[in-house]
Amino acid sequence: MDFSIASILLVDGLTNGAIYALLGLATVLVFAVTRVIFIPQGEFVTYGALTLAILQTGKVPGTIWLLMLLAGLAALAEAWQTWKRYRLAGTALLAGLKVLVAPVVVSLVTLWAAPQQFSLLVQALLSVCIVTCFGPLVYRLAYQSLADASSLVLLIVSVGVHFALTGLGLLFFGAEGFRNPPFWDARFSLGAVNLSGQAVIIALASMALIVMLWLFFERTLYGKALRATAVNRLGARLMGISSQTAGQLTLAMAALIGALSGLLIGPTTTVFYDSGFLIGLKGFVAAVIGGLASYPGAAIGALAVGIIEAFGSFWASAFKEVIVFTLILPVLLWRSLKGGHSDEEH
What we know:
The protein is mainly α. It has one domain. The chain has 14 helices and 2 strands. It has helices at residues 3-34, 41-56, 63-86, 89-113, 120-143, 151-173, 197-219, 221-231, 233-238, 243-265, 276-289, 295-315, 320-326, 328-339; strands at residues 187-190, 193-196. The protein has a two-stranded antiparallel sheet. The radius of gyration is 21 Å and the shape is globular. The chain starts with a helix and ends in a 7-residue tail after the last helix.
């Protein structure tokens, strides 16, 4: 291996690492606020990329029908819970309608816009809006009633949600893979390295999103409320912060990050209905390196995962996944020896 090959692999690793960093940050965010190890994070990536691919063909993406189905179920669940609490039909109906507003608006706009063949940026924006709406609905249907359950129960639920979303992805997208057009079709020569415009977009978008997340948590009231929930759920409840609202907002942010990651990675690789699992799992490895608590640690771990994956694919392409996922073993061993053992918090 000479310097030119090493430079190419390094750029490729950093590009993939930027995507893994976003997924790692989303995993840390969801776990910190809800205690959920959110395995389906990769499905949001797949749904974002495939929704844009279907819009590119001028057809209505299947995610619209899935979104309406989940919205209807969530509205019924919310209306029934409100009815049991207040015994007022009008209040229950209003609660159900509130759940339906955003998904219905997004769906109607997409039904109108899909055949119009708008520009790539407009279709990308629609894709992000569609997938983001999935976050609160998934939390409402799968996690909200189990918010106080143990971490093991929440993990089992996450596995079930992952398999459900993967199967639904096969139903609505089919087994065929898609590759999206790049957002910036340019080439830059840096010595022996050819840098694509899409790689620049990935780096800039990742850095911008990380900065926006930092500003959100440091400068906004909702961000500080999520931080308070992450530090002490009971204390946040006593201060009037709704854990249900915090959970739904957190899953919406995770879905937003996943959708953007799908749009960024779509032009660099062919995405299938089940591609999200491996992509999300690498983000999870980055989150574990950060201890499922440190955002900078997860970002650094993600860049390390991307670089090791790139060089591993050069030296032993058949074992690159094994090399990446083996990273988690020494990290877990080190954290276990360093942190000791404690009973699960009740």
